[in-house]
Design brief:
There is one protein chain. With about 450 residues, the protein is mainly beta. The longest helix has 11 residues. It is built from six helices and 31 strands. Strands 11-10-9-13-18-15-16 form a seven-stranded mixed β-sheet, with no helix packed on it. A six-stranded mixed β-sheet has the order 22-21-24-29-26-27, with no helix packed on it. A five-stranded mixed β-sheet has the order 12-20-19-14-17, with no helix packed on it. Strand 15 and strand 16 form a beta hairpin. It binds CU-O-CU linkage and copper (II) ion. The site of CU-O-CU linkage has 10 residues, from strand 5 and strand 30.
Length: about 450
C-alpha cells in the first residue's frame, strides 16, 4: 500500500522515476506474498449462506497471476492455514526445486511459515497453480488459481477471459463443504465429485458480450475428478492451444470438447448467436446440457465476422521427441472398484490405505518408476486396466500422444486414459529432477495413483 502511494505521489510531483524505483526496490526486497488462508465465498446461488473455503489471498479462486513470457515469477508463499501446504505451478516447465511437491521437491511449509517461489516462466499460455500437499483435500477446499503467461505478441481479440471450471461438494442446507475427504467410495470409484458445478468460484457465471465480439477463452478444469464435456452455442471459433502449448494452426472446436481434470484449452471465438444469449454448456450426469457459462448479448462489436485468427506463436522447445531412439516404458494402471484385481490383492492394497497401483506400486515410495538420463527420448505406454478413466499428468515436461497411425499429437501435460484402453505418450526427458507422475483425479492420486520419474 505504502509503495503504491509513494509511486503515485512521485508521479504526481513529476519526480524522476529511476531513483525512486531503486529506493522502493531496496526497501521491498521481500517478494509479493501469496497467502493461504481461510475465507468466505459465495459459491452457492444467492440466498444460500457463504461457504468457508481455504483460499489464496482471500479470494476464490486464488488471484489470477499474469506474467509476461520470459519474466521471473516471485511469490512468497505464506501459510496461514493450520495445516502444512505447498504450491505447485501446474504445467510450467521450471526448475525442479520450485515444483512445490511436498515430500518430493520440498518439505511442506508448516503453519505460520513461508517459502519463496522464484522462477523464470519459459512458455506462454494458460497454466494454473494449486496446493500440492494433501491436494485431494486442499484443492477441493479452494486452493487453486489461474496462472497466465502472456505472449509478447498477444493475438488480436477484444477480450481475454479466464474460466476456471470447478465443482464443490456442499451440504445442501448449510452450503458448507462436506468435510469427509477420505470416503472409500470416492477413493475407489470415480473420485470426489461436487454437487454444485461452477466457474471462477460461482455457480452459474454470466458474462456480457457483444455480437461479433472476438473472445479468447481460457478454460481450466480445476475440479478434483469431474471430466467436463462441453459444447458452445452462439459462439463459433477455433481451439488454439492445449495445456498451455500453442497448436501449429487454429483448429475447429470439436462438437463436444472434453476437458479432463487439470487440462486446459484456449479458444478464440466470435459471438455469432442471433438470440440474446450464447453459452458454454456442460453435459450433466442426467445426459442433459446445462449452462456452464452464459453470455448475455447486447450491442454489436462490429458489423461482420472477422477473418480467422493467426496461430499463437510457438513456445521454445517444442521439437517432437525422436521416436526411433525412444526408450519404451509401460505403466500398468490397476485396482479400483469393479476392476480385475483379485480380491486378495485388493485387500492387501486396502490395508495400506490404497485402492490403485501404477506400475504395480501404490504411492510414490522411495524409488522412481523410471531412472532417465537427461535428454533421453522416452515412449511411455499407459495401460488402463481399470473400470474408470484416469487423467495422467507428468510434472516438469510436456508429452505428445503417439496416435494410432504413429503420428504425434499436440503437446500436453495431462492425458485422459479410458477404461480398458492403452495410451502411449512420448517426450524428451530434458528437465532434470524428480518429477511426479500421477492421476489428476486427486482422490485416486491419494489412494495409490502417484509415482515419479528421476531425470539426471
Ligand atoms: Cu496439477 Cu501434481 O499436479
Ligand atoms: Cu485416476
Amino acid at each position: 500500500m505504502q509503495n503504491v502511494t509513494l509511486t503515485r505521489r512521485a508521479v504526481l510531483a513529476g519526480m524522476g522515476a529511476t531513483a525512486l524505483t531503486a529506493r522502493i526496490g531496496n526497501a521491498a526486497t521481500a517478494p509479493t506474498p501469496l497467502t493461504a488462508q481461510r475465507a468466505m465465498a459465495q459459491i452457492a446461488p444467492e440466498g444460500y449462506p457463504q461457504t468457508e473455503v481455504w483460499s489464496y489471498d482471500g479470494t476464490l479462486p486464488g488471484p489470477q497471476l499474469r506474467v509476461p513470457q520470459g519474466a521471473r515469477l516471485q511469490r512468497r508463499f505464506v501459510n496461514k492455514l493450520d495445516v502444512p501446504s505447498s504450491v505447485h505451478w501446474h504445467g510450467i516447465r521450471i526448475d525442479n526445486a520450485m515444483d512445490g511437491v511436498a515430500g518430493l521437491t520440498q518439505d511442506a511449509v508448516p503453519p505460520g511459515q513461508t517459502f519463496d517461489y522464484d522462477f523464470v516462466v519459459p512458455d506462454a499460455g494458460t497454466y494454473w497453480y494449486h496446493a500440492h500437499t494433501n491436494s485431494m483435500e486442499q484443492v477441493a477446499r479452494g486452493l487453486s488459481g489461474a496462472l497466465i503467461i502472456e505472449e509478447p505478441d498477444a493475438p488480436d481479440v477484444d477480450r481475454d477471459e479466464v474460466l476456471l471450471l470447478d465443482d464443490w461438494l456442499l451440504d445442501p442446507d448449510t452450503a458448507q463443504l462436506e468435510p469427509d475427504f477420505t470416503h472409500p467410495m470416492d477413493l475407489s470409484h470415480g473420485g470426489r465429485f461436487g454437487n454444485l458445478v461452477g466457474t471462477n468460484g460461482h455457480y452459474a457465471l454470466t458474462l456480457k458480450a457483444k455480437r461479433h465480439e472476438r473472445l479468447r477463452l481460457r478454460l481450466i478444469n480445476a475440479a478434483n475428478a469431474r471430466i467436463f464435456v462441453l459444447r458452445l452455442t452462439g459462439l463459433s471459433g477455433w481451439q488454439v492451444a492445449l495445456d498451455g502449448m500453442s497448436l501449429p494452426a487454429p483448429e475447429p472446436i470439436p462438437e463436444e470438447l472434453i476437458l479432463a481434470p487439470a487440462q486446459r484449452v484456449d479458444l478464440i471465438v466470435d459471438v455469432t448467436g442471433d438470440g440474446a444469449q450464447a453459452a458454454i454448456e456442460r453435459l450433466g450426469n442426467d445426459d442433459q446440457w446445462h449452462s456452464q457459462v452464459a453470455f448475455e448479448i447486447s450491442g454489436e462489436a462490429s458489423r461482420t465476422r472477422r477473418d480467422a485468427p493467426a496461430p499463437l506463436p510457438p513456445n521454445p522447445n517444442m521439437a517432437p521427441p525422436d521416436l526411433a531412439q525412444a526408450r519404451p516404458l509401460e505403466m500398468k494402471i490397476e485396482g479400483g472398484a469393479m476392476g480385475r484385481m483379485s480380491r486378495s490383492q485388493m485387500q492387501g492394497l486396502m490395508q495400506s490405505g490404497n485402492f490403485w497401483t501404477l506400475g504395480g506400486k501404490a504411492g510414490p515410495g522411495d524409488t522412481p518408476f523410471a531412472q532417465l538420463s537427461k535428454g533421453e527420448p522416452v515412449r511411455l505406454r499407459f495401460v488402463n486396466d481399470t473400470a474408470f478413466p484416469h487423467a495422467m499428468h507428468l510434472h516438469g515436461m510436456h508429452f505428445r500422444e503417439v496416435l494410432e497411425d504413429g503420428r504425434l499429437g499436440p503437446m500436453r501435460d495431462t492425458v485422459l486414459t479410458f477404461a480398458g484402453r492403452s495410451h502411449e505418450v512420448a517426450f524428451t526427458a530434458d528437465n532434470p529432477g524428480k518429477w511426479l507422475l500421477h492421476c489428476h483425479m486427486l482422490a485416486h492420486a491419494a489412494a495409490g495413483m502417484s509415482s515419479w520419474i528421476d531425470v539426471t
